[in-house]
Design a protein that fits this description.
single chain, five-stranded mixed beta sheet, four-stranded antiparallel beta sheet, globular
């Protein structure tokens, strides 16, 4: 088994590496460029960073990413914000070849992607109250659910991170403005907002918790990434209808999402809030670093 570092610095100075994924088979992290439209790969043992994908023409905005380790695919969300459209690219994770692309959103953007064990992908639209469903084997891409309760406030982000529950039966969508979580059965059914207690899920006026971004399960717990903090949600009711929240600050703000590697939580410091929303220079370097799960004990 490869050894893992606590921190990996990235070479780029202006890419805004918004998304991160991990391939356990080869021990590589992948970072996607919101502004550069590139994907880089980082060796978990050595920290060496190499190109994985570079656009031939005008770069698209690349965001959420996930690795299908069984089928050897890398799924990456793309958007063209200037044209208000988005979709997903699917790459061969070993060769870098692009296998397929699906345009999904018209009048919106695609933000993040989650994968079920059967290879089906679910993608969020941050400007429309939609989660898409893509079955690469069947060659189909459709709206999985559209519900007005997931509508974004004017000029703000709505749906953001997305995850498939550990039992494979539910899709959970994170929502940014204001922070909340929604759950819907994969087999179809009613969209529910998850009832949350414990620490405040949307702390008013707290600059560390500006809005839920990426979400990921490690074991049975869901981790919700904010610019300056991470929340752990422990579910307390059947069907993921309710949960208890613990809030923790991180050692370096500027986060956007996370991935699981070697059973640990690794976040990516992309400075997306600072660079894109606040129009300020980034606090370099961009990096991927470990948040110890023991902080939630």
């Amino acid at each position: 088994m490869k050894s893992f570092r606590d921190e990996y610095s990235l070479q780029a100075t202006d890419s805004v590496p918004e998304g991160v994924a991990f391939d356990a088979k080869t021990g590589r992290f992948f970072a996607t460029g919101l502004l550069s439209g590139t994907i880089t790969q980082i060796d978990a043992q050595t920290g060496a960073e190499l190109p994985f994908y570079a656009p031939a023409g005008q770069p698209q905005q690349l965001t959420g990413a996930k690795v299908d380790e069984v089928r050897r695919r890398l799924w990456v969300c793309y958007s063209e914000i200037q044209n208000m459209l988005g979709g997903v690219h699917v790459f061969d994770v070993d060769t870098g070849a692009r296998l397929a692309s699906f345009e999904l959103a018209r009048g919106g953007i695609c933000n993040d992607v989650a994968l079920a064990a059967d290879g089906v992908a679910y993608v969020t639209d941050s400007f429309q109250p939609v989660i898409y469903r893509i079955d690469l084997e069947a060659g189909t891409a459709d709206e999985f659910v559209r519900d007005a309760r997931m509508s974004a406030p004017m000029g703000q982000f709505g749906l953001n991170g997305v995850a498939v529950s550990p039992d494979g039966a539910y899709v959970i969508g994170g929502f940014t403005s204001p922070s909340k979580l929604f759950v819907v059965p994969r087999a179809g059914g009613e969209v529910r907002e998850i009832s949350l207690d414990g620490d405040p899920f949307a702390p008013a006026g707290d600059p560390h918790f500006l809005g839920a971004d990426g979400i990921i399960f490690i074991g049975e717990a869901l981790y919700v990434i904010h610019d300056g903090g991470v929340q752990q949600v422990t579910f307390t009711a059947p069907g993921y209808r309710a949960g208890t929240v613990k809030n923790r600050l991180v050692r370096e703000p500027g986060l956007s999402t996370a991935t699981a590697a070697n059973g640990e939580l690794y976040v990516i410091k992309s400075e997306v809030v600072r660079m894109v929303h606040m129009q300020q220079p980034p606090r370099l370097p961009f990096k991927i670093y470990r948040v110890p799960l023991e902080v939630f004990d």
